[in-house]
Amino acid sequence: MSSLHFDVVIIGAGPGGEAAAINLAQHGKRVAMIENRTHVGGGCTHSGTIPSKALRHSVRRTIQFNTDPMFRSIGEPRIFTFQEVLDRAEKTIHEQVDIRTDFYAYNRINLIFGHARFVDKNTVSVITNKGAKELHISADHFVIAVGSHPYRPPDIDFSHPRIYCSDSILKMKYTPRSVIVYGAGVIGCEYASIFAGLGVRVDLVNGRDRLLSFLDDEIADALGYEFRRNGVRLRHNEEYQQVEATDDYVTLSLKSGKLISANALLWCNGRTGNTQSLGLENIDVEADGRGQLKVDECFRTKLKHIYAVGDVIGWPSLASASYDQGRAASLDILGKVSYWDGQQVPTGIYTIPEISSVGRTERELTAAKIPYEVGQAHFKDIARAQITGEYLGMLKILFHSETLEILGIHCFGDQAAEIVHIGQAIMSQKGESNTLKYFTGHTFNYPTMAEAYRVAALDGLNRVRHRIPDKWDMVSAGIEFSK
To answer: Are 418 and 376 within one domain?
Structure first.
């Protein structure tokens, strides 16, 4: 049995682990990365963010081709199989693995592919993937970044060829005529969009009374409308009782007495942290009922030399947030000041069309009794959207009705996840720089989707112009009210 020692051992090569490893290595630390897959990238690259977004992109391009009158003049609509769009996703996965493998090599990070398990507070045992060789690796610090996996109820047979979770769906070899998506969270809504875009009849079963309740109500309602317009049947306030599968169909029995049948079932109801085989009992660290670890503001567990980042600590369970958490944890290990503002993490939901937001919602501002107003820009009125044919969508700016401070940005439509970052940048500024003044006092390229900020800002100012304090310098603010 071989024994090795490192300054820091990272367990899990997803975004959080990668960010921590690279930053530590660049600051001179001797770092080992332990990954239980055969390639780096973690669940984000192999079964989550990258494949699902690559799938969505291919489906969206198909929709554009089939609905654009210009393309209709040169050919008939095309239907692609689920396997064909999966093949495109596989290409992206391979490209991501190659790039990330180069990152580790360039930064001289020791890659060890195998299963890690704590044997004591400073040592892990690793059974390597090749040859089942056992290593004992000790370190001064550890970062747990093992991610999560889909929750699978024990009474559902996920080995059946017509029953899938959000991981196994990537191995589907056929295109179903109909599919039941159980769970209307982010993952469920994204896959409902993908299947609907392929012409598959979709039943989206939601255990709550509305879609994505953390979103701005108007944005969530817009998503629901688009789902219905594209043939997705929404079933709110429903809970499963039993799942039965045959060679051709899956029947979902609901506690309300309803029966739904389809060619396939995609289970998207919850995720569990990958902590079950980490040997946490050997270091007196406990995971909760969802396999998640509790950490402090510096991402330290109960043991201050052991950190945890990413999906394994729960909310917000985003690849972007995991990366920042990993970097923040590495800075704390280095003895540097680290700060991560989880309240300013943008939400990106890659439905068709996509959704993105940052900051507070109208519901939150109302509950907090903060005086606010709304400025809106509808994409159908934006020249760039008219050029691209992406008329569907809107940008909402929520701002303080007295100080004009930006309080929230909510976007629905093409490129929403890109557009939101302009608002995010302005919200992070201080003084008058984080008010509507920026959008009315600066020139935007024309035609661009970014111009929606100027349109929304002027719309909002028109709503409060009779309440603008006299001290507000209308000229220097660059405000121009329309009649």
So the answer is: yes
- Give the predicted TM-score (pTM) of the model: 0.92
Asked whether residue 276 falls in the same domain as residue 133, the answer is: yes
Structure tokens at 133: 């060789």
CB contact at 8 A, 208 and 224: no
For residue 212, the domain's CATH number is 3.50.50.60
Return the closest-CA partner of residue 168 out of 154, 183, 152, 184: 152
Give yes or no: residues 178 and 244 share one domain: yes
- The β-bridge relationship of strands 134-144 and 264-267 is unpaired
Alpha-carbon distance values, 199 to 71, 72, 231, 290, 343 (Å): 19, 18, 9, 35, 37
Task: Determine if residue 452 is left, alpha or beta; phi over 0 gives left, psi from -120 to 50 gives alpha, anything else beta.
Answer: alpha
Q: What's the CA gap between 273 and 300, in Å, rounded?
A: 17
The span from the CA of 443 to the CA of 456, in Å, is: 14
Biggest alpha carbon distance in the chain? 80
What CATH number did the domain enclosing 415 receive? 3.30.390.30
- Mean pLDDT, consecutive 10-residue segments, the chain of 483 residues? 89 97 98 96 94 92 82 74 86 95 97 96 92 87 97 96 95 94 97 95 96 95 96 97 96 97 97 96 95 96 97 94 96 89 87 96 97 97 94 96 95 96 93 88 93 96 77 46 41
**β-pair partners for 300:** 307
